Amino acid sequence: MNKSFKITLLALAVTSTLAPMLAAPAVKLLMLDFTEANTVLIQLVVTFASFFILPSLLIGNLLSRWLSKKTLLVIGLILYVIGGVGPALMNSIGGILTLRAVLGLGIGLITPLMNAIVAEYFDGEERSKMNGLTVGVNGLGGAFFLIIGGAITALGWRGVFWTYSFGIVLLILVLAFIPGGKPVITRGETASDVKLSLPVGVYAVGLLTTGLMVLYYVIPTNLASFVVDNHLGNSATSGYLTAVSFIFVFFAGIIGARLQHLLRKGSVAFILFLFGAAFLLLGEAHNLWMVAAAVGIVGFGFGFAYPILLSKMAIVATTAHRTLAIMLMTAFANVGQFISPLITNGIQSVLDLNSIRGVLLLIGVLVTGLFIVSVIRVIVSKKELVKA
């Protein structure tokens, strides 16, 4: 494959991770501008797009029977630009959320198609290399655009949404370098195979993915308010801190496979330890360095955990259902993104907590409890192996 084709695919990879997060630095500014709006609605500006990725996955699956991947990518990118830039022209939270829904529909077309094209045009080591590069681009690209988004908050929250105009560049690249032929049927998959029910393990991994996303998205949906309310910086600062998270996602993606081989059954306990420590640290953070450390730990934990779940999904799904299973994993992930702020605000409301600090500490305690249980399970399983 030529370099232009590869570069285009890697550029498209940025959209899946970056699109919802890019609006995070604007949250506090939106709160200041829309004082009458419900806080939850404003926080949903970050994650609302994720909910609408779900119907888009189904629509894309149906349209793929008649339209080529290139055509669907073009449609997805047009929706991406409209939904991404459009909120900059709105004067109500309702209008902004409506266009964030359009953004979600665009992402729902782009992400699975990009992954399908990688699977279709690359094999063996070359495919693994492309997947590795995709993780790297997601992390570094996300950090780059979030730093820009954070800096642009100096111009107001509308400026943050104008950064989505980079989708126009992606549209040009797709038109120029993505082949226009119709997709090839996945090897080993037949119409009769697809009709078979999915293994239960697919749903189990999907629910774990939702849980991981709920934990991870506590950070971007609350970070801007946390930083400003505690006089640790401004909305731009939250953008830089979220970029730190992406950088650590990248590092975890690079060394994750080796680290998992080293930890083996202790990998789950390590992930829980990272998240528990991060939330406890953030709940007690009274300076910017503590916040940065906590955000970095969360990023590393996510970057280590997600590939493990992705590999597990490939194992529990049958060959015929593997593509569908990965699509469902994307759906479960986006449900987690969407409900994360609903859960954190629900906890704060039910327990009558004065600030988000209490929520963060509670999450930290709960995850630390799960870490202890996980360690005990690992120890017990080792003893059983020794007895056997």
Computed structural class? mainly alpha
N-C termini distance: 51 Å
The average pLDDT is 81
Share in β-strands: under 5%
Taken in chain order, the helices and strands follow as HHHHHHHHHHHHHHHHH
Helical percent range? over 70%
Q: Which term fits the overall shape?
A: globular
List the uncertain runs. Answer: 183-194
In total, how many beta strands?
0
Number of separate helices: 17
| Cα-atom radius of gyration | 21 Å
| Main sheet properties | none
List keywords for this structure.
globular, 80% helix, 0% strand
Topology of this structure?
Blueprint: H1 3-21, H2 27-33, H3 39-51, H4 53-63, H5 69-85, H6 93-121, H7 124-152, H8 157-162, H9 167-177, H10 191-194, H11 200-216, H12 218-229, H13 235-263, H14 267-283, H15 288-316, H16 322-350, H17 356-387
